Amino acid sequence: MRAVALTQYLPISHPESLLDMELPRPAQPSGHDLLVRIEAIAVNPVDFKIRAPKDTVEANPKILGWDAAGVVEAVGEAVTLFQPGDKVYYAGDITRQGSNAEYQLVDERIVGPMPTTLDYSAAAALPLTAITAWEALFERLRLDRHGRDAGKTLLIVGGAGGVGSIAIQLAKLAGLKVIATASRPESRAWCQTLGADHVVRHGSELLDAVRAEGFAQVDYIFCTSDTDAYFDTLAELVAPQGGIVSIVEAGKPHDIEKLKAKSAFFAWEMMFTRSLFQTADMVEQHRLLVEVARLIDSGTLKTTLGEKLGSINAANLRRAHALLEEGKVIGKLVLTGF
């Protein structure tokens, strides 16, 4: 099968950082696995973080990619949720080969039926960011998605990125007042289109920008960008008995005592946790993706596809990684077909 893979971890400017390869097609699925024929993929920061330069050399080519839409080709003997021919979308499992290939094995319990109103490109833009935003808001921050927290304030740091784009929509469906951060005119407009009530500048101006909008504090904060740079500001902004969730790893220690007087909490969200640890509730990601598909098909949510970069090949994936590393992508980058 055709695939894009790596054996060395190199800067994205290096022509061998990602390579077009011909690799063996995955074996017949067993257990809860599906064999999926990939039709479209999306690219996320996790891709370039894993590909980042280091001394490791892979004995066997490593396939990246954790967002896909495609068709079920075959199923394992324990599969109950899907059958061959079903259109599916999913983010996959960080411990296994990724979706930058013609075929992939993936556990049915972290796969959803593709929204019927979307094509493969628009569907591939959704899974990783939808799972991340959903889990961060409704499981880590424990917000009620049916409106019992309506009127509370939520600050989303990085509103125009892939995760921020779906988080704005989900938070508005839950009745929250959303303050999103964005700095460029086009990213500010994107956040407003998705429903943000206020859009403020991030960076060193964040604290003053939020307060200039009339918010001395906010009930909840979702950090999708640079935990190290923002932790102290977020600790100052979060309201008593509020909460902060982040999806970006910290590169240095932070003083969590700053949250003690407020009885505020800090939580991490990593959407790979369930598959990484094979948790007893893995199937919750399937259920989540079923509900996201329903909301898409009802017109309540919309895809966050930002730009199509052409077919799935090494050159286009190197371009996608480079754009993400620059930190100025709006929505999701998608590649379709080989």
TrEMBL record:
Belongs to the zinc-containing alcohol dehydrogenase family. Quinone oxidoreductase subfamily. Homotetramer. It is found in: Cytoplasm. SMART domains: PKS_ER. This is Zinc-type alcohol dehydrogenase-like protein. InterPro entries: ADH-like_N, ADH_Zn_typ-1, ER, GroES-like_sf, NAD(P)-bd_dom_sf, Quin_OxRdtase/zeta-crystal_CS, Zinc-ADH_QOR/CCCR. Residues 16-335 form the Enoyl reductase (ER) domain. Keywords: Cytoplasm, Metal-binding, NADP, Oxidoreductase, RNA-binding, Zinc. It comes from the Bacteria. The keyword ATP-binding does not apply. It holds the Pfam family ADH_zinc_N_2.
